[in-house]
Amino acid sequence: MASFLQLLLLFSLSFFSLSSGVPYEAILDAADILLDSGFISMALTIEVVAKTLLLQSPSLTVFAPSDSAFGKTGQPSLDLLRFHVAPMPLPAQSIRLLPSGAKIPTMFDKNSLVVTTPPSDRRISLNNVRVNISPIYDDGFVIIYGIERFFDPNFKYVPPHRRSHPNPACGATNETVSSSNSSKEAVRALNAGGYSVMASFLGMQISIDETPMTVFAPADNAVVSHLGNFSDYPSFFLRHVVPCKLLWNDLVDLSDGSEIPTYLDGFSINVTRASGILVLNGAQVFFPNMFYNNELVVHGVNDVLATDEKTQEAAESSSNLEAKRDDEETLFDPGEF
What we know:
alpha+beta, FAS1 domain, five-stranded mixed sheet, 2 domains
């Protein structure tokens, strides 16, 4: 679901410069660690192709097949090697947060790796190949994980069947649907409206042929001002996505205190009203129904959806503002004149 220029560490490479690559010394250090760890074939391969392959990005993640995998397949082609390199740092905690079906772009043209980790399994797998989640090498810019065999570029992901769970905030019409064009159309709408970061998130990480969903999209400037740590990106996106369709009419019908579950485990969106304005975790819907069809709804919001602590602060601020207005109306009563 992504092109090379859309990466931004899983979500928007437009905020990073590609003018300089990983220092060659870092590649040599990584090769030495691979040698010491028993990944001799991959260590020698990285040294050979470093200047033509690995120095094209300021950061990267390498998935290193074992020596036995090299022995079975022989020396891999350059394209196959590219398929084992993601031009971004992927810490273990970030990979663990990616849901099954999420796509990780690689340096092999427009080919992506697919997360195939079962929801109940602590082990990580990509393209049905188990990944040793303890990095062999990690200096913050280059991260290397060991894998048991080569990834198959022709791998086809089949989404697991999911049961529909009752959601009081969703209507009864949120049955499973399918449309391969929904995400592409929504991405175009987001990009056109100044929501390119969320467009990259949506284009890369969500497979909307599994269930209907609603995306609450903050504008680019709001996202940039709230995100700092690379590991925050996956959880940030998942807390802005709801696993059901909620059009604007559905949202305004929700009562104060309603909780809307999101794709981020344990995180819900709290519905409140301040002076009659609908507020979702401290954010207001600025562009309702920016995009919608039978499978997907996208609303533009004026800020990121705050965590519980920030939501409480926003609620208290709104409450204080309303109290101040009430006091002002009491002091100035037109009926006295």
